[in-house]
Design brief:
5 helices; 35% helix; alpha+beta; 10 strands; two-stranded antiparallel sheet
């Protein structure tokens, strides 16, 4: 009887310890099932001209869609990404990329100047209306211009692996947890 009680107690302790240790290999982001390959998207960079996402050498790309005249979510998201980027410290392993949803205003020069004002190593990409619409669809990003010349848009951060497949999304609630997940993402064998 005491042996059985001891085994039950050990099981309860082990279960409690497992919950206390937390998320383990779990990530805060939402995993994308059947991740699309994003190597062929053509976009434009101020210095490099026409580029694909495969042209960037970092192991992980953190991609955000927004626009330079955004009054709130875009600057707040970029500020969170600056913190995650600086806190992580291994900047050769990750690259932050912002793709405009307002190509009429955000030329490659304008978007690059904007993201550089947050961090000099961030990349801003533009393109034609068709290129931006194709990129947004491929990333499952929605956007729409309002009557006040603002945009409503999806505000998630997309994580692309080294083969430039879309693997995870981080919503605004979990962007601050990116710094915890970046080491786990870099260690995954399928990345």
């Amino acid at each position: 009887m005491l042996g059985a009680i001891g085994l039950i107690a050990a099981g309860v302790v082990a279960l409690s310890l497992g919950h206390m240790l937390g998320r383990g290999n779990e990530l805060y982001g939402t995993e994308v099932q059947n991740p699309p390959d994003l190597n062929t998207l053509l976009l434009r960079h101020v210095d490099r001209g026409t580029v694909t996402l495969a042209d960037f050498e970092a192991s992980l790309l953190l991609v955000f869609f927004g626009y330079t005249q955004c009054p709130d979510i875009c600057p707040l998201t970029l500020a969170k990404l600056v913190k995650a980027y600086d806190d992580f410290g291994k900047t050769e392993d990750i690259q932050v990329v912002m793709i405009t949803i307002d190509p009429a205003h955000d030329t490659p020069e304008v978007i690059q100047r904007y993201v550089s004002s947050f961090h000099p190593e961030f990349i801003g990409l533009g393109g034609s209306n068709t290129e931006i619409a194709r990129a947004a669809r491929t990333f499952f990003i929605g956007y729409q211009k309002t009557v006040s010349d603002q945009f409503n848009h999806t505000d998630a951060i997309a994580i692309l692996d080294s083969r430039r497949r879309l693997r995870y999304f981080y919503n605004q609630e979990h962007v601050t947890r990116l710094v915890e997940d970046l080491p786990k993402l870099l260690l995954r064998r399928d990345f």
